[in-house]
Amino acid sequence: MTRSSANESGGVTEAKLPGRDWILLPMISLLTICILAGSTELIARRMFRVSNTGMRECLRPYDPWIGTLGVPNATCSEKRAESPIVVDYKFDSCGHRAGMECGPKPPGTYRIVLIGSSIAFGSGVPREMTFAALLPEELSQRTGRRVELYNEGLGFGSTPEIIAHNFDAVLSEDPDLILWILGPIDFMAPPPVAHGSGLPGAAKDGFMAAGGGEGRFAKVWRHLKEAIATRSLPLRVWNTWDDTRTSIMLQHLMYRDQSQYVNSYLKRGYTAGFLSADPSVQWQTNLRQFDMSAGDLEGRAKAAHIPMAVALVPNRAQAIMLSTGKWPNGYDPYEIGNELHQIIASHGGTPIDILSDFRGVPNPEQDYFLVDGHPNADGHAIIAEVLAKELTSGTIPALKALTPPQTVVEGHR
Amino acid sequence: MDTASFEFVTFGLAVVLFSNFSRSHVWRSFVLMAATILFLGLLAHDPIVFLPLAGFLLLGYGGLVLLERGWSRSMVWSILAVISVYIWLKKYTFLPDGLFIHSPYFTLGLSYILFRVLHLLIEAGGNSNRRRISLGPYLLYTLNFTTLVSGPIQFYDEFAGDQFAEQPIALGPRVIGLQLERIVRGFFKVNVLGMLLQTVQADALARITQPSPLFPKLFAAFQLVVVPPFFIYNNFSGYIDIVIALARLMRVRLPENFDRPFSATSFLDFWNRWHITLSTWLKTYVYNPLLMVLMRRISSVSLQPLLGVFCFFVTFFLVGVWHGRTSEFIVFGVLLGAGVSMNKLWQVWLARAIGRKGYRELTKNPLYCAFGRGLTFSWFALTDFWFWADWKQIDRVFTSIASVHWLGVWLAVWFSATLVLAAWEWLRAALLSIETSDGPVFTSRYARAVYATALGLAAFVMVVLLSQPVPDVVYKAF
């Protein structure tokens, strides 16, 4: 074939192309694109099904000040594209996915109030499998005390500023310890509020929102009009592609492999900037902003005489780098943890380092949803185990283990 | 820009557009020179880094001028000087470190420039009636951006015949369509197939060294043998597809570098189909002269077939050594040389044992061809370990499972390659036998439109939408 094409292209003159081919060939190309794109999306929709209803029905409209609380006492089910199971989201009378009722703590109980965003919330994972559910059991076993955990994790772009706005509610729960769980995405600037969605725009590591009740055609038309009006057509095209099941299917296939995923993730520029050994100006600004919010929260916790522990859960790319001990020049998966440690300690809080524990986690890429990026049930089990180990190691005197902590983390699957 | 990236293709197509503003060879040469300077400027911003390359080119040109002025005795010295400077600039590890320039400088494409310069020197030294080559055409020929990074290695007369022709070769819709389809195909090979295969290879390399049960390790070993040849093929031939098509759109025909190498039924045949321009160059300037010299000195008829065996070994040993500066490539060269010389020896022995007619008939036997194809692939896959891995990796890979298990893996590779490649040959022949009056259906422009669109769409999704990292062109390192 290669030879024939070379031969065909040899002479000084060339045979004319039939007139019909000027129409036919572009039509064939167009038809090929339509058939390929359509059939791939159909296959992807069969392989990666989602439920028609989702968590959205259980949530109050997004408020840039207080975030997205759940509707009190609401229950919703959701099947995400990447998750093999339907996950129930049950909210208590205070609008939290706490797994218990809000109110005064029982006597003799050590109460931890968990704050944070989607990782703390347990996005995409049944509540009983989240670290929020597993951690108190683990701590009770290790310390011999009765430990309970009230989960006020919010998700949906719950920035430190939003957490600060809700902090009085946290203090009112009478905690013995406030545990703040962060993911790298929590250091980023607040996500823009998506028009008409009632939820902040989904970041790459954030939620994949389920479809709403609006008709597909109407939705597309509305998005197109908005995009033209705001001159954000390329971004909208990009988001539309990102929302297709084809995109999820292909990313799912591509992101299985450790090295491929890390290489691909590091190409994301700003999003991957926290892995840089030398953080960019934008990331330094993010850290300064976080420093202010953390100072505010820790000051208020200190005034209420409540200790506050802060831990950073690595994202998938970071966990792979930590586990394998390999990363390209110019990157350092520990850098953001070091920055966090300094910030938290400078305000009198207790930094909990769990990044080092991921060195002992084999194949951590399997502990996250490949595309969505949140920890899956296996990931939550690991987080519970490493948190329990670090919290009972003596950093929080009230939770010191009866026996010395054991090495993490084998056989969690 | 020095890979088969989206930017490189866009740059190439922009040059094509400018080049075709006029059919005049002066204009086309001006555009090619400007594009080459721009291309080099995009690869390195500091002009100082080009000084060693400029010195190398001037050395070659100086030698050429001397030869063109009748100093034919300077040929050997010119060649030796050029090769020595090349070895020095490439920092071959057998030279003491203190000899090298330690500030960074530009060497991309130097190996390919070496072949072009040596070709000019040898031709000028051997033929006093040749037309003189001035500095402009010399630089255009040696630095041409379409062949700079990884070849193909073109002879000067072929280049000049098209580049400086008063009446350039045709460029109509058919040719443009074919070349665009070839660019898409090449882009897909490098950026999608190559990327996927590289991922599988990296994954297998990680798995084979991790503690795990035997079967997953055997599978990883199998993948490590089978995948690299396909990765290298897609990576290199895809890049070559792109540059050949770009050059053709600029009305220059570059020589083909690949001809379905995995269809080869012997290792000798393989090297007629893989990196064709390199093996052709070495056969022209090493194998043939060496054989002639030896045949003149050793007149024994019974020994003459063995001289061919020896010359093949030397030629392909040089092919291997050319690929890199470290000791791994010496082993690579030995294995390549051993492969072709054993193949030649087998041919000689078989022809003596069953007669030339019997041998010819045997080589047409489908079963013999199928097993030969499988064995050729397996040997090439073995040599590839010294091509892509360093000693540390080779040690880790080969000690990860027992020798007897490796033997099983190699047998599995041989039989699998035999079956799969035979099935592919059969399928290809069957598909190409479906014909209309215009020729095979699957090579018609309508079929090409379908698969070029499909491959283009897949490449666009992978590279642009999914932002998958583009693998480097492996052969640019040499």
Brief overview:
With 413 residues, chain A is of the alpha/beta class. Helices cover 41% and strands 9% of the residues of chain A.
Task: Kindly describe this structure.
The complex is a heterodimer of chains A (413) and B (478). Chain A is built from 14 helices and seven strands. Chain A has helices at residues 2-8, 21-47, 118-121, 131-143, 160-165, 167-172, 216-230, 233-243, 245-254, 258-266, 281-303, 316-324, 335-346, 377-395; strands at 75-79, 86-90, 109-116, 146-151, 177-182, 308-312, 350-352. In chain A, the strands form two sheets. Chain A has a five-stranded parallel sheet, with helices on both faces. In chain A, strands 1-2 form a two-stranded antiparallel ribbon. In chain A, a hairpin with a 6-residue loop joins strand 1 (75-79) and strand 2. Chain A is globular, with a radius of gyration of 25 Å. With 478 residues, chain B is an all-alpha fold. In chain B, 71% of the residues lie in helices and 1% in strands. Chain B has helices spanning 6-19, 25-43, 51-68, 74-89, 110-126, 135-143, 145-148, 156-163, 173-208, 214-249, 267-270, 276-297, 304-322, 327-362, 366-388, 391-398, 403-432, 445-465, and strands at 435-436, 439-440. In chain B, strands 1-2 form a two-stranded antiparallel sheet. In chain B, a hairpin with a 2-residue loop joins strand 1 and strand 2 (439-440). The model of chain B has no long low-confidence stretch (mean pLDDT 93). The chains are: A alpha/beta (413), B mainly alpha (478).
